[in-house]
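Table S5 (text form). Sequence records supplied for joint modeling of the six-component complex.
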Amino acid sequence: MPALPAELAGQVGAALREDIGAGDVTAALVPATQRVRGRVITREAAVLCGTAWVTETYRQLDPAVRLSWHAADGDAVVAAQVLFGIEGPARAVLTGERTALNFLQLLSAVATAARAFTDAIAGTSCQILDTRKTLPGLRTAQKYAVRCGGAGNHRLGLFDRVLIKENHIAAAGSITQAIHAARALSPAIAVEIEVESLPELTEALGAGPDIVMLDEFSHADMRAAVLLRDERAPGVKLEASGSVTLASVRAVAETGVDYISVGALTKHVRAVDLSMRLEFGAHRS
Amino acid sequence: MPALPAELAGQVGAALREDIGAGDVTAALVPATQRVRGRVITREAAVLCGTAWVTETYRQLDPAVRLSWHAADGDAVVAAQVLFGIEGPARAVLTGERTALNFLQLLSAVATAARAFTDAIAGTSCQILDTRKTLPGLRTAQKYAVRCGGAGNHRLGLFDRVLIKENHIAAAGSITQAIHAARALSPAIAVEIEVESLPELTEALGAGPDIVMLDEFSHADMRAAVLLRDERAPGVKLEASGSVTLASVRAVAETGVDYISVGALTKHVRAVDLSMRLEFGAHRS
Amino acid sequence: MPALPAELAGQVGAALREDIGAGDVTAALVPATQRVRGRVITREAAVLCGTAWVTETYRQLDPAVRLSWHAADGDAVVAAQVLFGIEGPARAVLTGERTALNFLQLLSAVATAARAFTDAIAGTSCQILDTRKTLPGLRTAQKYAVRCGGAGNHRLGLFDRVLIKENHIAAAGSITQAIHAARALSPAIAVEIEVESLPELTEALGAGPDIVMLDEFSHADMRAAVLLRDERAPGVKLEASGSVTLASVRAVAETGVDYISVGALTKHVRAVDLSMRLEFGAHRS
Amino acid sequence: MPALPAELAGQVGAALREDIGAGDVTAALVPATQRVRGRVITREAAVLCGTAWVTETYRQLDPAVRLSWHAADGDAVVAAQVLFGIEGPARAVLTGERTALNFLQLLSAVATAARAFTDAIAGTSCQILDTRKTLPGLRTAQKYAVRCGGAGNHRLGLFDRVLIKENHIAAAGSITQAIHAARALSPAIAVEIEVESLPELTEALGAGPDIVMLDEFSHADMRAAVLLRDERAPGVKLEASGSVTLASVRAVAETGVDYISVGALTKHVRAVDLSMRLEFGAHRS
Amino acid sequence: MPALPAELAGQVGAALREDIGAGDVTAALVPATQRVRGRVITREAAVLCGTAWVTETYRQLDPAVRLSWHAADGDAVVAAQVLFGIEGPARAVLTGERTALNFLQLLSAVATAARAFTDAIAGTSCQILDTRKTLPGLRTAQKYAVRCGGAGNHRLGLFDRVLIKENHIAAAGSITQAIHAARALSPAIAVEIEVESLPELTEALGAGPDIVMLDEFSHADMRAAVLLRDERAPGVKLEASGSVTLASVRAVAETGVDYISVGALTKHVRAVDLSMRLEFGAHRS
Amino acid sequence: MPALPAELAGQVGAALREDIGAGDVTAALVPATQRVRGRVITREAAVLCGTAWVTETYRQLDPAVRLSWHAADGDAVVAAQVLFGIEGPARAVLTGERTALNFLQLLSAVATAARAFTDAIAGTSCQILDTRKTLPGLRTAQKYAVRCGGAGNHRLGLFDRVLIKENHIAAAGSITQAIHAARALSPAIAVEIEVESLPELTEALGAGPDIVMLDEFSHADMRAAVLLRDERAPGVKLEASGSVTLASVRAVAETGVDYISVGALTKHVRAVDLSMRLEFGAHRS
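The corresponding structure-token record, covering 1710 residues in total, follows.
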């Protein structure tokens, strides 16, 4: 299991506050001593992700709710499969249901998408990366889901990698000057530069970046770029970017690029269809 | 324009913090005095939503950035249309770009989906509603987008409406007892109950709820439900729920139900494709 | 017991931080191993409310403090009655005393006032409601207390009900136009309108609101309003508002209105007089 | 004007969030360009307090709202007096009205109570102090209001003064030992001790506290306490505590004690009756 | 042990968030079931401080981590001494190491400095105090460490003592007027005034402050100040301030002043050198 | 100027709240209309850092305070040099003085230390880096100061680089396995490994890390390490770590290592000695 983000508890707390607000007026209909037992199933195949968010939801609501997980983050699950069992005070189980499932259906969606792209390029040496096109406030959660789906994380934010684009190059004067300026300003941080043509790539390789992003290159140009890189600067990584779909991703990977970044992993979401089914038990004596 | 949520500034602040963190190491390459001018276009047709989030993003980053909006929340925009112009210090414009667009592409996606469902039932007296299946931490923003798309909001959270489901009925003893208990507990709040058959509906109508949710009813049963309601309790509203798609929504609306709630409006997201294009100007003297 | 608000833990945390700050310099005089046992009594009759806030206070301070409650939220208690027993590390018990009692004396005061108004109209079909005239930051706690006292909650805030007043009517053009605009803007939300005379009521009833607020009506006019409503729009609720006191509330209820809203429930507070009495035990070995 | 607390902006933000939540659904009925002008009057005599909270409310909501104050914190105002004029966008004025008035009616209530007690002892050398019996989360605001009413603040919290009570004396072994321990632990902080009899006072005076609190002393014993103090430890201050009312406070002050602490100043609230009256203007071009 | 500040949990949470962010990518290399046992030693002599911050760090990360403390806050420890043992899940132990040690090395540094100054004046009746020259956001933690080192706290902030300086005197008109104004404005709060010469001291003593700060007085002038005080206002405390070092502090204390305030205690930090040593155990079955 | 961290406003807000609390009781002595003008000087040579924190302090307190900076972050300043002028309402200037200077004296201290180490290795191709040994809650501010001093940032936290140490190697089985595992888990993130001997370095170089940290190597072994790296894996960077002082740093740099990480930059602080000098002007009319 990849590392969990520190924001997890805060994300869960915010979600509970926005859903519960002044109090769950429906759960108040259930006797405070009523207990319940149930399970959550998926109605469709998916890659599971978000178990820690579900656990945290019930930990914050009522530690007396017990969960028993039947699958782990990153596991492929099939339609009708039980994901977890749940048991405890009925009010807390009901009050937390939507918040818990909202996290699970979202993060499993992201992991499922990441797995689809990763599977599509299986056997190549290429890797799928995410982008900064994420849902506001949920970036670290989505990046965790990407890792659970077997893909990797591009930079987390503006702070952990220099990514030089057209506007920065214009400001610096040239590709070479931009890379040198970045190295001087941030000596121990990875420097990536975006190029739009093979001549730009040639200049970039000469200036020693860690990674070059090939922006909207044709597949032929990507192959040429890989040859150029192998010859001139074998340590530099190449990243393909722009309009890559599940249909086209394998062809891109086979050009020999090291990374393919895919905005669709985190900016689009097709929530996984989940369902909680409960049986009411006797009252707690 | 519908009312803006109070969480707006907090949502923007959180998004900026997660993206900028220890600082934008790339923007630091641009001279502090450099100015820039540009515009944001949409690459596809959409219903615009999120202008206040974009404005707040730049207000928090640097009030010297000026925006000029060419369209308003709720407006239908077409591919290549300019959404807003932007002008100001280059560093701030670049640093805020992704956060601003992440809000705009998400909220426009929600408004666009809401408009598609609303348009599909045009001419009927039925209304589309959202659900609590939302992205954690972004509910009030998504509910605002739903309103911009012309649909309505179902309850905001667990606090502003009683929604009695199967488990609550079991706990209360019967449909009638559950509704009476809800009225007693929450005298001035709307009470909705979910039923799964016409006999359950008949019992529910006799107990005086404000709304009855018809869970996975066939279209024929929905029509029967409308007749029953008209006869027995004309003031009660009927809401269709469950597996309604853009293809089926009009047929559902034509059964005569008052509301159709659609989880897909807020749990799935197909981000609108936006692009910021900049021209660097002279330095600020 | 009504539903607890999600803000509870945050309200307690803020109260503890404002009271403890840099540290309880007096409790530091007591040996860290000293234990204590005690009880909290009320010095006057009241309706108890706030037990969950007291529990949360000690849970945040030191989970080793044990509370045993002798009464529950909503219970009528009499002078000198023991409300709860307390046992645990002396420092934590002493440090939390004032914060715990500040919540309990405030929320019991609100519940007590709500019960007094509710009792005064016993036997009528009318119900007492609160208002938005609350103590800043404590609204959801006060609204919970109102429910514990047997009264109901008017809207929680500006977000969960349309309440059209004179100024909105002026902006919309007429009572009818205002109600129609509200329905269009907020299709699934309750719409209430304030009227100042019987002719205004007549117009309002024709436009189909959920509730009409009768602002400062005489008792005679209230009775006339009830008749008018019964005749023209029997599904619409009537709410009396303005200057209702404990002395006048029964007469108002007997006019046949459905609700009476009372700002005094939450804007005035007469804290219940409570006292914690402790006996120091042996040191913890 | 006394010093404003740092929590002011946070208190206002929390109040606005709890009131506005997902958005003001009624203000949305008013055209966005509509402007309004009005004034807030008091319906009863009071000491004004809370102007900075009102200003901050509108500053956070919309800086285009302009306020013109006709009275300042600490001023005595009479029934029907105009407190401030207001002018600006109608939506923002309406949305902020309740939050602004909730602060003003609460803090003016506290200042009014403080002034009543202060006036009652005019001409004596005694001073009225507040206590830690405050509304949770609003302590610093209430303590500011107390100062505006002309009374003084007892300790702000558990951190800024040692206040030794019965339980601490028991833990320390004796009054003398408790005071010595406090001095050793907190060398530069004021030390106060509560005593319940004249013999206890005698022992306390010998140990050198800064202040002695006379708990529920008779007026005769207070006078004896003052004589004892003058003779044995003239630098020590005496504070009367317990069940002091507006009726009895002057008699207490005339015993010669230095301070009288009054829990009622901040634990009870009788909100001042305020009203905002608006006139709608032309639209903003 | 002195009283712990209420901000402790918040300080730890902030530190964990800034260190862990999107997740500990290195700890993810260790199997989730791996357990570890170890101990933390100091590599140099120090006064220990910060045990509660370490405990809270692991409580927030993973309550399954167990700590066994071999020394307490305020204890003098020697090079190579074991401070605490640690045992638990290897990932959590590793992830929390740096945050825990950052608090412990900082707070022990402050306590060590405080003890050095305190020891230097042992046997005199003078006391060392800290100042408001602290690390932003860490003041209450540092003030706690000062107390653990045996020194006292000067005011916590701008709120708990009046400290009249040159600029305030100028604004008030004279030393006497400034002290009288402070008494009137803040009747129950300590009033301190800074003077720069013996004539100023003479005027100050006549106006009845609680403390006089002697700013940059020579040792001879301090002795004269003490005599003056003993003669004219024996209840007033004298505080020496300005450029006092470990070398000069005893001579200052021997002048007879009551307090010496030392900015260096909290504005300079020489972190104590600590080390965590671990042994990996078998996996948790 | 390097990029500013997003936490800046939050750090300033927290510092103001801890200093001002319930209000500045001394500034309240100054008339609200009094204006003041002044300047801040440094009493010793330093590298300036923290101007944005000072600006933000006064922006939050009172935007009417005007600052005019005479030097910028990263500038070397000399004793008695004026850093900035200040002008505005006297109360706000006085209230913010300590918070503003606390940031400036701390961050300038860090930048000054970074500059000293950087200057000591001038002319070599080596670079000084900081560590995660920082003041809790202030890491991003300190890392900014390190950049202003001309040194670079090592990882920001546990999230932006894999740093494999002895315990992780033991868990993974071998150096080679640990590096391979890290690459698989975090495909697009830098991987660094710590080695304690030349044979360990040899194994590490064969497994393809981005950086190798040489832990407590002798200078001779560092030179051997550089030769080994040049021969076997020229693209891998070498970082010297452990007990490097200002006296020894040049000798370390001359061994040919690429980076030297220095905990002392951020864990020790010798605050720069600053002073604000004010002149009171006429009242604001």
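Note: The two ends of chain C are 39 Å apart (CA to CA).
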